[in-house]
Every structure is written in C-alpha cells, then in structure tokens.
Specification:
With 413 residues, the chain is an all-alpha fold. It contains 14 helices and no strands. Helix 1 packs antiparallel against helix 6, helix 5 runs antiparallel to helix 6 and helix 8 runs antiparallel to helix 11. The longest helix has 32 residues.
C-alpha cells in the first residue's frame, strides 16, 4: 500500500534525473568541442540524434500504455547512466571521437525521452493514490525541476574548472543511476497497467494518442498547438538570438546570468501557482501568465540595457511558470489514465523536435537580414500566438469545461 511519502520519493528521483541531464547538456558540447575542434560538430550531433529522439518518444509512449511505467522509468535512467559512463571508459581505452559521441548520444536519447515521458505519466497516478492535490503538486514538481536545471550547469562548470571534463561525466552518470535506485522505492504496483486497459497493439496506442489530442478534446488540441508555438519562439531566443546578441556585443559571459534569471523565475512562478491555485481560476491564470510571458519576452527581445534584460528574464520566468503548470495540469486532467503514455509521448516527441527546426529557420533569417529585425519578427509572432490562444473559444471555458467522458469510452472500445 502506498504512503503519502511515495510522491516525495518520486520527486527526489525526478530531481536527480533532471540534475544529471542538465549537467550533461553543458559537459557534452564542451568535451565534443575539445576533442574535435569543430564548432559545427555539436549542431551535427543534435541533428543526428533528432530523429532517434522523435522515434524514441513515440515508441516509449506506446510502451508506457502496455508495460509497467515505474519499471520503464528505472530502465530509462539506467540507459542514460550507461550511455554517459561509456564515454570516459572509451576515453581511457581507445580515445573519444565524433563517432563515439554519435553512438552514445543516440543510445542516451533512447533512454532520456521515454524516461521523461514515464515521469510525466507516473506522477499523476502517484499523487492520486496518495490522495494529494495534483494541481498543487504539479507546481511544486515543476519548481523542483527548474531548480535542477539551474544547479546542473553549475555542477558542470565546477567539474570543468576544477576536475576535468571527462571525469565530470562520472558524476552525471551517477546522478542518473541514483535516480533509478530511488525509483525502486516506489512500489511496482504503482506503475502497473490493468490488463483490460492495455491496447491491442503499439500501432493502436499511437492512433489513440493522436485521436485524443487532435480529435476528441479541443482544449487538449489547442493546449498542444499553443504550447508548441510559444516554445518554438522562446527556444529561438535561448538557443540562438540571445547568444548571437551577447557574442556581437563582446559579452558572451553575461548570457549565463540571463538564462539563470529566467530559470530562477521558473522556480518562483510554479511556487506561486501552487500556493494560490485554489484561490484563482484556471482562465485567470491562463490569461495573466500568457500576457506576462509576452510582456517579458518583448522587453528582452528589444535588447535593452543589461539590468533591464535581467529583470525581464526573471519576470518572464515567473510568468511562464504558472502557464506551464496549468497546461501540464490540463493535459493530465483530460487524458484517460490508460492512454497517458501515448499522448504524453507524442507531445514530448513533437516538443523536442520542433524547436531545432525553428531555430534553423531563425538562423537563416539572421544571416540574411539582421538580428534586431528578426527579433522584432519573433516578438510579433509570439504575440500572434498569444492573441490566438486568448481568443480561441475553447480556451475561454477552462473553468467550466469538463473532459469528454464519452470520448474516453470511444477510445476504450
């Protein structure tokens, strides 16, 4: 029988896993650049791993509706740990090359994406069985993950500066291994799928997931579309426009502080959402947070003085935290529990694949035009997404619309 400590055990495991992944995102590009001396190698590696990531997201989501979700989470963290630990082993024997990074990058993608989806799917069932408030705890969970995203790069920086880049990978691998070991303390019954709820085949699982998002529930449909639009534009700033701006101004070292302030806001925002979720309606959260993101990104996208940019980053993070928590809650609330794996796997696959393509388009525009013109275009695009999201009829009914139970019955049949 589960106790009310099970959700906390899960959050500890999730924190360790995210901490390991966020530190790896700093360590791996640095090591790759040192070993190859080619700045394009990191971009090439991202493209090589992109398709396996997408396929792993789809396959992992389908598997999560057929097999034990807790066990898949453990297996995924073990795969991530082994793929990272293999790099220093290879370095000690034959030496690292681009091919080794590509091989273990693909293997790691197979573990990371299903693992992320497994946590998305397992978390609400644990909260429900522990008789806790999902809307409150999803805010706490997102705040904790945001904290890991801040600490992870800091750990990587210390390891690079005071130990060695390759040795630092052992710490990253240990964090993923630790996450897997902690998840063992969650009873296996918590992730078990009822025999009657299992889909007849992986193909039917993916078909059901697609139908749930794009056919049966319009709030889910618009939540995915709006999230994808906003994430693509914001990612273009984080992954390209801000780095280009600070590089052009000769202050590359300041970029990290801006991203840290954004992450700090992403901790504060979900905590505010968690504390006030019972006092403020979903539609109010949605409008205030979405408009707040637009205001904050507009300030940052105009490239003001550095103190104002720092303030804009923190404000954007605070505003986006409740929006992300709310949209995540809507996804969980409205997806049939037995099909959460397929739906969340499909969503995560698209959310990870779409931003790199948009960043590539933005990079081409920056090359053809100039930074500030492209930034203004991105600001306009973001506000078009916001206006569309606020004006959409279905998103005006967040406080009254209930999940379509008849659609759930259609899917089960």
């Amino acid at each position: 029988m589960l106790t009310k400590n099970t959700t906390l055990v899960f959050m500890a495991s999730s924190f360790a896993s995210t901490l390991g992944n966020s530190s790896a995102t700093v360590l791996l590009p640095v090591i790759l650049l040192i070993k190859t001396g080619d700045p394009l190698a990191a971009g090439t590696l991202a493209l090589i791993c992109g398709i396996p990531q997408f396929l792993a997201g789809l396959a992992g989501g389908a598997a999560l509706d057929r097999f034990n979700r807790r066990n898949i989470s453990i297996f995924s963290d073990l795969i991530s740990a082994l793929s990272i630990a293999a790099l220093p082993i290879v370095e000690m024997t034959s030496g690292l090359s681009f091919g080794w990074f590509a091989l273990f990058g693909i293997i790691g993608a197979v573990g990371d994406i299903p693992g992320m989806t497994a946590r998305d799917v397992l978390f609400p069932s644990l909260v429900e069985r522990d008789e806790l408030s999902l809307q409150k705890f999803i805010g706490l969970w997102q705040a904790l993950d945001s904290l890991a995203i801040i600490i992870g790069p800091a750990i990587a920086s210390v390891l690079i500066g005071y130990v060695s880049e390759v040795t630092g990978l052992w710490v990253t691998a240990f964090l993923s291994l630790f996450a897997a070991l902690v998840t063992l303390f969650i009873p296996a019954s918590a992730g078990k799928i009822k025999e009657a709820d299992r889909p007849v085949s992986p193909l039917s699982t993916l078909k059901d997931g697609t139908a749930i998002i794009f056919k049966h529930d319009k709030i889910l449909t618009f939540s995915v579309i709006i999230s994808a639009g906003a994430i693509m534009i914001i990612s273009s700033y984080q992954g390209l426009l801000f780095p280009v701006y600070f590089t052009e101004t000769g202050h590359e070292e300041l970029l990290g502080y801006v991203l840290s302030m954004l992450a700090l806001g992403n901790i504060i925002g979900p905590l505010i959402y968690s504390a006030l979720t019972d006092k403020i309606g979903k539609r109010t959260w949605y409008v205030v947070s979405f408009v707040g993101v637009g205001i904050g990104m507009t300030v940052m996208g105009l490239f003001p003085s550095y103190p104002i940019m720092l303030a804009g980053a923190c404000f954007t993070g605070i505003a986006s935290g409740p929006l992300a928590a709310l949209l995540g809650f809507l996804m969980i609330e409205r997806i049939p529990e037995e099909r959460r794996g397929a739906v969340m796997g499909l969503q995560n696959a698209f959310m990870l694949v779409l931003p790199p393509f948009f960043i590539f388009i933005v990079s081409a525009l920056v090359t053809a035009l100039d930074l500030r013109t492209v930034s203004l275009g991105c600001i306009v695009a973001l506000w078009l997404v916001i206006v569309y999201g606020l004006a959409t009829k279905n998103m005006k009914r967040l406080d009254m619309d209930e999940p379509d139970e008849s659609a759930d019955e259609d899917i089960r049949k």
